[in-house]
Amino acid sequence: MHVHETIESVAHANRWTRRHVADKAVLSGSLLALCLILPPWPWSLVAAAIAAAAALRGAGLRPQAWGLALKPVLLFIALGSVPLVFISGERALEAALRALGAGSAVMLFAATTPASEALASLQRCRPLAPLAEMAFLILRFTAVLRDVCRSMSIAFHCRAGSRRWTRGMLAAQAAASLTVRGFAMAHRAERLSALRCVREPILFWAPQRTGSAAFRMASAALLPAVCAAAYFCGEPLPWP
């Protein structure tokens, strides 16, 4: 199943689906800030553990669903850490830990918030409204490109058969064709958008949710609480 479909289906079926977007944004933002301002060991792992506990115990996500949500994060860490290993193993480990904690915080928000509600909340903030439209267009383009990739995969398996050299050649051709088709579709979408001359912004519908001040205060208190724990453990903080 596609990553976006998995996260979106999980986001519509958990205990935090009906929570206000701002509540989950404060919690995820606090965990993300911990990964940025504290040393990666062990505090990024602490942030990742808090995100996992919030997803599994608080939102009620299944471990399989949380694991599927973290797959893109782990793939990003694996690909991004390879060049750093040749420079410094310590830097590679620090970058991997920070990416794990930050990715877990972001995935906590994505796995508990439907895309429509996130886009609608982003559009209500006037300075960030263009980002909502851009994200919506990216999601649409990704869905279309996924369908093209699926049809090409079916054709590839039908043509390749059991011959290994044929499968290798067709796989390279399919990858090159998908790249060309992706650029062609993006150019076509840009031209159609320009020809329509639509000046009105795209409107996103989302149900009204009631926020919880207690939840936001508890989420915001995570940042000073963990920073205080790091200080008493003797960790160097970025401020005197």
Task: Please characterize this protein's 3D structure.
This protein is mainly α. The protein has two domains: 3-114 and 211-232, no CATH class; 128-196. 79% of the residues lie in helices and 0% in strands.
Count of DSSP E strands?
0
> Unreliable stretches, pLDDT < 50, 5 or more residues?
1-5
Helix content: over 70%
Number of helices: 9
Q: Please tell me how large the radius of gyration is.
A: 21 Å
Overall body shape: globular
**Strand percent estimate:** under 5%
Distance between the termini: 48 Å
H/E order of the elements? HHHHHHHHH
- Residue-averaged pLDDT, rounded? 78
Structural class by secondary-structure content: mainly alpha
Oligomer: single chain
Structure described in brief:
The protein is an all-alpha fold and 240 residues long.
Topology diagram in text:
Layout: H1 3-11, H2 21-37, H3 40-58, H4 63-87, H5 89-112, H6 115-124, H7 129-160, H8 164-196, H9 213-232
Descriptors for this entry?
mainly alpha; 9 helices; 2 domains; disordered N terminus
